[in-house]
Amino acid sequence: MNKNTKIITAVVVVIVVVGIIIWFGNRSAAPVQQPAVLGEATGSTTQSVSVSETTKVSGSSSQYQNAELGFSVQYPSSWEKDETNTGVQFIMPIDQSQVSTVAKLESDIEVVPGKCAFPPVTTVQDQGTLAVGSLSLNMIAISNTVQGRSYFNRMYSLQQGNICYMFTFSYIALAPEAKGLTGSNLTQAQNNNKAIQSTSDAAFTSMVKSFAFVTIPQGESETQASPAK
Protein backbone atom coordinates (compact mmCIF):
# COMPACT_ATOMS: atom_id res chain seq x y z
CA MET A 1 0.00 0.00 0.00
CA ASN A 2 1.52 3.32 -1.16
CA LYS A 3 1.53 6.53 0.79
CA ASN A 4 -1.44 8.11 -1.06
CA THR A 5 -3.63 5.05 -0.43
CA LYS A 6 -2.84 5.15 3.31
CA ILE A 7 -3.78 8.82 3.48
CA ILE A 8 -7.08 8.24 1.67
CA THR A 9 -7.92 5.29 3.96
CA ALA A 10 -7.19 7.37 7.08
CA VAL A 11 -9.41 10.21 5.85
CA VAL A 12 -12.30 7.79 5.19
CA VAL A 13 -11.96 6.29 8.69
CA VAL A 14 -12.00 9.76 10.27
CA ILE A 15 -15.12 10.72 8.29
CA VAL A 16 -16.90 7.53 9.35
CA VAL A 17 -15.98 8.01 13.02
CA VAL A 18 -17.13 11.67 12.98
CA GLY A 19 -20.41 10.62 11.34
CA ILE A 20 -21.05 8.02 14.03
CA ILE A 21 -20.33 10.55 16.79
CA ILE A 22 -22.71 13.09 15.23
CA TRP A 23 -25.46 10.44 14.83
CA PHE A 24 -25.27 9.31 18.47
CA GLY A 25 -25.12 12.91 19.59
CA ASN A 26 -28.32 13.73 17.75
CA ARG A 27 -30.08 10.69 19.28
CA SER A 28 -29.17 11.67 22.83
CA ALA A 29 -30.20 15.27 22.23
CA ALA A 30 -33.61 14.31 20.83
CA PRO A 31 -36.50 14.80 23.29
CA VAL A 32 -37.77 11.62 24.95
CA GLN A 33 -41.42 10.97 24.25
CA GLN A 34 -43.24 10.36 27.56
CA PRO A 35 -46.33 8.15 27.62
CA ALA A 36 -49.62 10.03 27.97
CA VAL A 37 -50.90 10.24 31.54
CA LEU A 38 -54.59 9.56 32.12
CA GLY A 39 -56.38 12.79 32.95
CA GLU A 40 -53.93 15.09 31.20
CA ALA A 41 -54.82 17.05 28.08
CA THR A 42 -54.26 14.46 25.35
CA GLY A 43 -57.02 15.51 23.00
CA SER A 44 -59.66 13.65 25.04
CA THR A 45 -62.41 15.42 26.97
CA THR A 46 -62.72 12.60 29.51
CA GLN A 47 -62.62 13.82 33.13
CA SER A 48 -62.29 11.82 36.32
CA VAL A 49 -65.32 12.08 38.60
CA SER A 50 -64.97 11.45 42.33
CA VAL A 51 -67.54 8.90 43.46
CA SER A 52 -66.71 9.39 47.13
CA GLU A 53 -64.88 12.07 49.04
CA THR A 54 -63.90 12.98 52.58
CA THR A 55 -63.74 16.58 53.74
CA LYS A 56 -62.71 18.18 57.01
CA VAL A 57 -65.67 19.71 58.85
CA SER A 58 -63.90 20.92 62.00
CA GLY A 59 -60.76 20.27 63.97
CA SER A 60 -62.10 16.93 65.19
CA SER A 61 -64.68 15.78 62.66
CA SER A 62 -64.84 14.88 58.97
CA GLN A 63 -67.59 14.21 56.47
CA TYR A 64 -67.72 11.16 54.24
CA GLN A 65 -69.88 11.39 51.12
CA ASN A 66 -70.55 8.65 48.61
CA ALA A 67 -72.47 9.81 45.53
CA GLU A 68 -72.81 6.30 44.10
CA LEU A 69 -74.42 4.90 47.26
CA GLY A 70 -76.29 8.15 47.86
CA PHE A 71 -75.43 9.15 51.43
CA SER A 72 -73.16 11.20 53.64
CA VAL A 73 -72.22 11.04 57.34
CA GLN A 74 -70.02 12.97 59.73
CA TYR A 75 -67.57 11.10 61.96
CA PRO A 76 -64.59 11.77 64.27
CA SER A 77 -61.45 12.36 62.22
CA SER A 78 -59.55 9.95 64.48
CA TRP A 79 -61.51 7.04 63.01
CA GLU A 80 -59.76 5.10 60.26
CA LYS A 81 -61.92 4.94 57.13
CA ASP A 82 -61.89 1.97 54.76
CA GLU A 83 -64.29 1.76 51.82
CA THR A 84 -65.90 -1.57 50.95
CA ASN A 85 -67.87 -2.83 47.95
CA THR A 86 -71.17 -2.11 49.72
CA GLY A 87 -70.33 0.90 51.88
CA VAL A 88 -67.74 2.10 54.33
CA GLN A 89 -66.07 0.81 57.50
CA PHE A 90 -64.63 2.89 60.32
CA ILE A 91 -62.08 1.51 62.78
CA MET A 92 -62.31 3.36 66.07
CA PRO A 93 -59.02 3.85 67.93
CA ILE A 94 -58.50 2.04 71.24
CA ASP A 95 -56.65 3.98 73.91
CA GLN A 96 -53.73 1.67 74.70
CA SER A 97 -52.76 3.76 77.73
CA GLN A 98 -55.83 2.57 79.60
CA VAL A 99 -56.03 -0.75 81.42
CA SER A 100 -58.67 -2.62 79.44
CA THR A 101 -59.29 -5.76 77.42
CA VAL A 102 -61.09 -4.07 74.52
CA ALA A 103 -59.97 -5.73 71.27
CA LYS A 104 -62.34 -4.29 68.65
CA LEU A 105 -64.27 -1.08 68.06
CA GLU A 106 -65.78 -0.83 64.62
CA SER A 107 -68.55 0.99 62.80
CA ASP A 108 -69.94 -0.14 59.45
CA ILE A 109 -72.42 1.27 56.94
CA GLU A 110 -73.73 -1.11 54.29
CA VAL A 111 -76.04 -0.27 51.41
CA VAL A 112 -77.59 -3.40 49.93
CA PRO A 113 -80.63 -4.24 47.81
CA GLY A 114 -83.53 -6.02 49.44
CA LYS A 115 -85.47 -5.93 52.67
CA CYS A 116 -83.74 -4.84 55.89
CA ALA A 117 -83.43 -7.65 58.44
CA PHE A 118 -81.48 -7.88 61.69
CA PRO A 119 -79.53 -11.11 62.30
CA PRO A 120 -81.18 -13.86 64.37
CA VAL A 121 -80.25 -13.34 68.03
CA THR A 122 -81.09 -14.83 71.40
CA THR A 123 -80.15 -11.93 73.67
CA VAL A 124 -81.72 -8.56 72.92
CA GLN A 125 -80.49 -5.82 75.22
CA ASP A 126 -82.48 -2.95 73.73
CA GLN A 127 -84.86 -2.28 70.88
CA GLY A 128 -86.58 0.81 69.50
CA THR A 129 -86.39 3.52 66.85
CA LEU A 130 -84.22 6.56 66.16
CA ALA A 131 -85.44 9.75 64.51
CA VAL A 132 -83.00 11.27 62.03
CA GLY A 133 -84.68 14.36 60.66
CA SER A 134 -87.84 13.14 58.96
CA LEU A 135 -86.51 9.57 58.82
CA SER A 136 -87.20 6.81 61.34
CA LEU A 137 -84.59 4.08 61.79
CA ASN A 138 -85.21 0.77 63.50
CA MET A 139 -82.71 -0.12 66.24
CA ILE A 140 -81.62 -3.24 68.05
CA ALA A 141 -78.83 -3.78 70.57
CA ILE A 142 -77.54 -7.27 71.30
CA SER A 143 -74.92 -8.59 73.70
CA ASN A 144 -73.41 -11.94 74.52
CA THR A 145 -70.49 -13.56 76.34
CA VAL A 146 -68.70 -16.54 74.83
CA GLN A 147 -65.70 -18.16 76.53
CA GLY A 148 -65.12 -15.05 78.60
CA ARG A 149 -65.21 -12.70 75.63
CA SER A 150 -67.85 -9.97 75.66
CA TYR A 151 -69.65 -9.06 72.44
CA PHE A 152 -71.91 -6.06 71.88
CA ASN A 153 -73.59 -4.80 68.72
CA ARG A 154 -75.93 -1.90 68.12
CA MET A 155 -77.61 -1.85 64.72
CA TYR A 156 -79.78 0.68 62.95
CA SER A 157 -81.64 -0.02 59.71
CA LEU A 158 -83.33 2.25 57.20
CA GLN A 159 -85.49 0.97 54.36
CA GLN A 160 -85.57 3.27 51.35
CA GLY A 161 -87.58 1.70 48.54
CA ASN A 162 -85.86 -1.58 47.70
CA ILE A 163 -82.56 -0.45 49.26
CA CYS A 164 -81.51 -1.16 52.86
CA TYR A 165 -79.10 1.09 54.75
CA MET A 166 -77.62 -0.84 57.68
CA PHE A 167 -75.47 0.74 60.39
CA THR A 168 -73.58 -1.54 62.80
CA PHE A 169 -71.43 -0.84 65.85
CA SER A 170 -69.25 -3.80 66.93
CA TYR A 171 -67.48 -4.12 70.28
CA ILE A 172 -65.38 -7.05 71.51
CA ALA A 173 -63.59 -7.31 74.84
CA LEU A 174 -61.24 -10.21 75.59
CA ALA A 175 -61.43 -12.35 78.71
CA PRO A 176 -59.36 -10.86 81.59
CA GLU A 177 -57.24 -14.00 81.62
CA ALA A 178 -56.01 -13.12 78.15
CA LYS A 179 -54.05 -10.25 79.66
CA GLY A 180 -53.39 -11.84 83.04
CA LEU A 181 -55.41 -9.22 84.95
CA THR A 182 -56.28 -9.87 88.57
CA GLY A 183 -57.33 -7.93 91.66
CA SER A 184 -57.54 -4.15 91.29
CA ASN A 185 -56.28 -4.28 87.69
CA LEU A 186 -59.16 -6.56 86.78
CA THR A 187 -61.69 -4.20 88.38
CA GLN A 188 -60.14 -1.21 86.64
CA ALA A 189 -60.21 -3.00 83.27
CA GLN A 190 -63.88 -3.89 83.68
CA ASN A 191 -64.76 -0.29 84.51
CA ASN A 192 -62.71 1.03 81.60
CA ASN A 193 -64.29 -1.49 79.25
CA LYS A 194 -67.75 -0.20 80.13
CA ALA A 195 -66.67 3.43 79.69
CA ILE A 196 -65.01 2.73 76.33
CA GLN A 197 -68.06 0.83 75.08
CA SER A 198 -70.43 3.59 76.19
CA THR A 199 -68.35 6.40 74.68
CA SER A 200 -67.84 4.59 71.37
CA ASP A 201 -71.49 3.58 71.17
CA ALA A 202 -72.55 7.22 71.70
CA ALA A 203 -70.12 8.41 69.00
CA PHE A 204 -71.53 5.78 66.63
CA THR A 205 -75.10 6.93 67.26
CA SER A 206 -74.04 10.56 66.67
CA MET A 207 -72.65 9.49 63.30
CA VAL A 208 -75.93 7.79 62.42
CA LYS A 209 -77.83 10.96 63.37
CA SER A 210 -75.73 12.91 60.85
CA PHE A 211 -76.87 10.62 58.01
CA ALA A 212 -78.20 12.42 54.95
CA PHE A 213 -79.08 11.44 51.42
CA VAL A 214 -77.06 12.91 48.58
CA THR A 215 -78.10 13.00 44.94
CA ILE A 216 -75.93 12.34 41.93
CA PRO A 217 -75.95 15.20 39.38
CA GLN A 218 -78.38 14.22 36.65
CA GLY A 219 -77.46 14.33 32.97
CA GLU A 220 -79.52 16.07 30.33
CA SER A 221 -82.47 14.16 28.91
CA GLU A 222 -81.54 12.62 25.58
CA THR A 223 -84.82 13.93 24.14
CA GLN A 224 -83.83 17.51 24.97
CA ALA A 225 -80.18 17.38 23.88
CA SER A 226 -79.31 19.27 20.70
CA PRO A 227 -76.07 20.10 18.88
CA ALA A 228 -74.39 23.39 19.72
CA LYS A 229 -74.91 26.06 17.05
3D architecture notes:
By secondary structure, the protein is of the alpha+beta class. The protein has 2 domains: 1-31; 52-213, 3-Layer(aba) Sandwich (Protein Transport Mog1p, Chain A). The chain has 2 helices and 11 strands. It has helices at residues 3-29, 183-209; strands at 52-56, 61-66, 71-76, 80-83, 87-91, 102-113, 124-132, 135-146, 149-160, 163-173, 212-213. The strands form 2 sheets. A 7-stranded antiparallel sheet has the order 4-5-6-10-9-8-7, covered by helices on one side. A 4-stranded antiparallel sheet has the order 1-2-3-11. It is elongated, with a radius of gyration of 33 Å. Residues 3-49 have low confidence and may be disordered.
